[in-house]
Amino acid sequence: MSVNAKPLPPINPDTQPFWDGCAQGRLLLQRCGDCGHLQFYPRMLCAACGSRTLDWAESCGRGTVKTFTIIRRAVSAAFEPDVPYVVALVELEEGPTLMSNIIGCDPAVVAIGQPVRVTFETRAESVAVPQFEPMP
Fold it and tell me: What is the pTM of this model?
């Protein structure tokens, strides 16, 4: 990895379908086949009922900013070009919450409750990371 390359996410058998979806421009959530619970982050068991009967459902990709912070000092050289940038918890319309960045706007205009939609940042040939941008 070059000094300015952003890190790649850890990919394992439990998360591979999620990252494959991201590479295709699709935000996938795990869905329990027994109780219907939708969850994020990917894991072996349903967080609601403990079932191992999990499959994947595509999210609509829309959500709202639940909370956020503005990063003004990069955590590494790879993120220096992005400073200042927003790290936020985004609550998806389907219910799960995930941590991501809000991009495509001045960080000073990001607000709790702001509607956002998913977009993807390509980090490697077959790896894309979900990011969110304000909805028009």
Answer: 0.93
